[in-house]
Fold this protein.
Amino acid sequence: MQKRQFGRTKREVAVIGQGTWYGKDDDRKSAIATLRKGIELGMTHIDTAEMYLSGRAEEWVGEAILPVREEIFLVSKVLPQNASRKGTIEACEGSLSRLNTDRLDCYLLHWRGEYPLDDTIEAFRELQSNGKILSWGVSNFDVPDLREARRFSGDEGPACNQVLYHLQERAAEHEVIPWCEKHHCSFVAYSPFGHGDFPGPRTPKGRLLKEIADELHATPRQVALRFLLHWPFSFAIPKASDVDHVIENAGAGDLLLTAMQIDHIDKAF
Ligand code: NAP
């Protein structure tokens, strides 16, 4: 599994991680089994949030990672309605308790809300100085929000911006990705398979992915994930509750697309 530096942190993090936004059909047992399989295959970058299943996802993650906590890059998120100075600290403590750990590797503001950003960032700094979080970042931020975050944080800046990005939704390429590149902010692609909306095998786009996949002895999903990683500072966090899906996703960790294959996908989508 390829690794990359995460933001300005000193951590090398798996380019393909594991999302945990479970739905009503997901259950604890299969969630834990797939997370563990993914970890075994190098997908040690785990993304969760206090929001997911109202905290239950964090409990499942805590259980899955307990024997291997040191290997994990663990990310969770505070909801904007909790992101006051005091509320952020309390929310983080709640996440740490559900995750059964003493620290998060990165803590994100889930999306921009009504609390002043400097209050949230001040809380992040306090959590960092107490060793409860090792870095902080943001999610769903457009460039004006990113600029504001940097005004308060200076060069320290957010370690990452986690954003909707998949083959059929590439708006982030216009401004957000260039901003991230310029400011050493990792770009983390969420819903990399379109949250269930992946091009079917009989569509022209699905056929192109299959053609490229055949050239590489890979699968269309592996090609799609790899395309999202052609930015040297990007990561992707697919969610899977099926062990075969996890195995397939991990297989994209070392895949390499040629410049021509990237160009074909770029034009087709
Ligand atoms: P996603 O990863 O784009 O898609 C998940 C769906 O794809 C599931 O139905 C899963 O099925 C299926 N899948 C996964 N791997 C597959 C494979 N190899 N073959 C066939 N199907 C496959 O959707 P997502 O959960 O929206 O996004 C991923 C993660 O990003 C979330 O879990 C969450 O951690 C994060 N996220 C963050 C935000 C934010 O606001 N920051 C928003 C959305 C998501 P099975 O479950 O059956 O395996």
Notes: The mean pLDDT is 96.
